[in-house]
Amino acid sequence: MDANKIKSSILDALSNSPSKFRGFLEAVANLLDLFRVIPRAFMVVYLLILVDVVDWFKELPDPNGAQSAFISVVFGSLAGIFGLYVGKNREQKKIIEEEEPPLTDRRPVEQIPPDDN
Predict the structure, then answer these.
(1) b/e string for 25-58 if b means 16 or more Cβ within 10 A?
(2) Domain spans of the chain?
(3) DSSP for 39-82?
(4) pLDDT tens digits, residue range 8-51?
(5) Distance (Å, rounded) from C-alpha 57 to C-alpha 73?
(6) pLDDT of 81 above 70
(7) What is the rounded CA–CA span in Å between residue 108 and residue 25?
């Protein structure tokens, strides 16, 4: 999405709302949704937790099976979360592509005005 569309969506949210505060909240919500701030923050937090868990596991003198299974679950869930994160972007692009108007004129031939050549 280019800068003009971002600017127009923010200005629309600010001008079309009944109160300025609600318009501000809608503009902030549009920006958070557009730049996917929440999913990115979630991925960063999960990666930090993963690093902490790996450090804990490396410091264990003699890890048992339950601790190894815990590490496997943490790593496996990272793969699932990353898959959802990447897959969500594809779904959003498909929705945006479907909303764009077609490039061709789909009116019946009798409704199309003749060219004045």
Answers:
(1) ebbeeeeeeeeeeeeeeeeeebeeeeeeeeeeee
(2) 1-35, 37-99
(3) HHHHHHHHHHHHHHHHHHHHH-SS--HHHHHHHHHHHHHHHHHH
(4) 766 676 666 677 777 777 778 878 877 888 888 888 999 999 99
(5) 13
(6) yes
(7) 44
Measure Cα distances from 40 to 8, 26, 49, 91, 117 in Å: 24, 20, 14, 16, 55
Of residues 32, 36, 31, the one with CA closest to residue 7: 31
Contacts of 46 (CB under 8 A, 6+ apart): 78, 81
Q: Report yes or no: 113 and 106 within 8 Å, Cβ to Cβ.
A: no
**CB-CB contact of 30 with 40 (8 Å):** no
**Which token pair is 45?**
């937090």
Place of tokens 């999405």: 1
**Res. 70: pLDDT tops 70:** yes
Determine the Cα angle at 82 with ends 52 and 1, to 5°. Answer: 125
**What's this model's pTM, rounded to 2 decimal places?**
0.56
